[in-house]
Amino acid sequence: QVQLVESGGGLVQAGGSLRLSCVASGRMISTYTMAWFRQAPGEEREFVAAINWSGGSTWYAEFVKGRFTISRANAKNTVNLQMDSLKPEDTAVYHCAARRPPAVGTLRTVGEYDYWGQGTQVTVSS
User: Fold this and answer.
1) Which of 69, 85, 83, 87 is nearest to 124 (CA)?
2) I want to staple 57 with a disulfide (CB 3.0 to 4.6 A). Which of 37, 52, 98, 111 is the partner?
3) What number of other Cβ atoms are within 10 A of residue 119's Cβ?
4) CB burial readout 64-89, b (16+ within 10 A) else e
5) pLDDT tens digits, residue range 67-109?
6) What residues are paired with 21 via a beta bridge?
7) CA 62 to CA 95: how far, in whole Å?
8) Cβ 83 vs Cβ 36: under 8 Å
9) For strand 78-83 and strand 18-25, is the pairing parallel, antiparallel, or unpaired?
10) H/E run at residue 67
11) DSSP tag of 102
12) Can you tell me the distance from the alpha carbon of 57 to that of 51, in angstroms, rounded to the nearest whole number?
C-alpha cells in the first residue's frame, strides 16, 4: 500500500505561484508513474500532469502547458507541481496519484491510477 499526502495549497492572487508537494509512504515510488489531478466543486476530477518513473517524460493537460511543471525526487519519495501564472479557473482541490508499473495507457484518466491522496485546496482570487 502507498499513502500519499499533499501540501502546499493555499490562497493566491491571479498571476501568482504555488508549489504543491506530494510525499509518499509505505513503499518507494521510484518505479511508479505519478500524476496530479484536480477537482473543482460540482466538476469531475480532471488530469493536470503526469511524470514517468525516471522523470524523463512528462505529460500535461493543454490548459496548464507552459504554466505548470511537474517534477519528482525519487530519493525523497516526493512529487512536486510548480504552478505559475495562476488563474481563477485553476481553483480546485489538487490530488496526487500513483500508478503501479507498467506505465501503459493514456495516463490521463482517474481509473488508471491505483493510489490517491486526500488533496490540497488551491484558491486563486481575481
Assistant:
1) 87
2) 52
3) 20
4) beeebbbebebeebbbbbebeebeee
5) 999 999 999 999 999 999 999 999 999 999 999 998 888 899 9
6) 7, 80
7) 18
8) no
9) antiparallel
10) none
11) P
12) 6
pLDDT recorded at residue 44: 97
Closest C-alpha to 99, from 44, 19, 21, 27: 27
Residue pair 87/14 in contact (Cβ under 8 Å)? The answer is yes
Cell of 119: 488533496
Please give the grid coordinates belonging to residue 67. Answer: 504554466
Q: What is the pLDDT of residues 79-90, one digit of tens each?
A: 999 999 999 999
Omega within 30 of 0 (cis) for the link into 88: no
Q: Are 37 and 45 in contact (CB under 8 A)?
A: yes
- Percent of the chain whose pLDDT exceeds 90: 94
What type of residue sits at position 56? G
Q: Which residues have CB under 8 Å from 42's CB, separation 6+? A: none
From CA 66, how far away is CA 54, in angstroms rounded?
Answer: 21
Q: Residue 94 corresponds to which cell in the numbers above? A: 489538487
Average per-residue pLDDT in the chain? 96
